[in-house]
Amino acid sequence: MPQLLTLQATRGIAANLVVFSHLFLVQAKYAAAAGVLPAFTLYGIAGMDVFFVLSGFIMVAVAGREMGPTQFLWRRASRIYPTYWMVSLAVLAVAIAAPAVVNSSVTVPISLWRSFLLVPDETLPLLAVGWTLIHEMYFYLVFAIFLALRLPVLAGLVGWGVLLLVIVATVPDQVAASPVLRLVTNPLTLEFMMGAVVGVLWRKRHMPGVIAAGAVGLAALAVSIGYIAPLLSLVTSPHLDVWRVIIFGVPSALLIYALTGIEMLYWKPRSTALLVVLGDWSYATYLSHVLVISAIGRTLVFLAPAGGIGASVMLVATGLLGANVVGAAIHVYCERPMLERLRQFGARFARPVESVVDETAQ
User: How would you label 262-281 residue by residue, b for 16+ Cβ within 10 Å and e otherwise?
Assistant: First the structure.
């Protein structure tokens, strides 16, 4: 299996972009106007768009190779659920002990079974960042259908896209009323599709212009985070998901195209690079970081009730470090051992097959 170390490094950067976006919110809550993070930091949410593109790429280039749909879903579920459940249980414990602390802005009851199983609902899951995993599980189910039907990836993507257009055009009222249909037809699915197309090109080793694509993608993403998103007040836009596909998703796809192409054709990074290690921790960091930085913010209120620049600097420094340290600890002592045992268990039932992904590489 290819190591794709540049993508691990990208995971680490993307996870920390999301950490910065939430640090900005926590800073605004606890340090008020004295915050040191600029306003555009909020749009570190672009890290999630990078993750969605990465997910599409990984499904095609790595995770869906030489396995059937059942094995694929087992491996994906064993990757996603155990760590998610562990952090969700921690959030549940906090919610029981101090209900006002968790998802205080939510005014309707949260369904625990939907939260823990990552089933679409009218509200965010108990662990709020789990909304992205609901999208991920949807992507995995669709890709498993590709594997079961032995569809070439590009043909499957075209059919999937046409089906979504038909649903949106013919039953818009049902889409608006159903959390499942809203998920199915969400524009963010296009980011997964873009990543899948990059995966097909990578498998074919047909990747011209990777350096130019990387330069354009990096510049476009930086301008989108630093200028376009704040100009549009993106987080309050009723068309948030459409805009983020355009200004975050497309540049992310160009970056993933460039990074994977450069690693394949020109340059092999060292596996000991710090960013690669951060990438190894990224899933655990992503799941746990809001708990960590919120706890740090509340602690600083007691230590420095007046707030100010000093409190903000301390929040950012300790929050960034704490989020990654806790992510590292969860990864090393919980996530990785659980994943190894679950994959050993799943390997007993594995039956290697000629993957649909390999068919696209001919």
Answer: bbbeeeebeeeeebbbbbbb
The predicted-structure confidence for 79-114, as pLDDT tens digits, reads as follows 999 999 999 999 999 999 888 777 666 667 899 999
Polymer length in residues for the chain:
362
Distance in angstroms (rounded) separating the CA atoms of residues 255 and 49: 12
Range of the domain at 132: 5-360
Domain count, the chain: 1
Give the separation between CA 84 and CA 115, rounded to whole angstroms.
Answer: 10
- For the stretch 16-68, pLDDT in tens is 999 999 999 998 887 665 678 999 999 999 999 999 999 999 999 886 677 88
What's the pTM? 0.93
Residue 68, phi-psi category: left (phi > 0), alpha (psi -120 to 50), beta (remainder): beta
CB 315 within 8 A of CB 49: no
CB atoms within 10 A of CB 362: 7
Judge contact between 127 and 91, C-beta under 8 A: yes
Spatial separation of the C-alpha atoms in residues 70 and 162, rounded to whole Å: 26
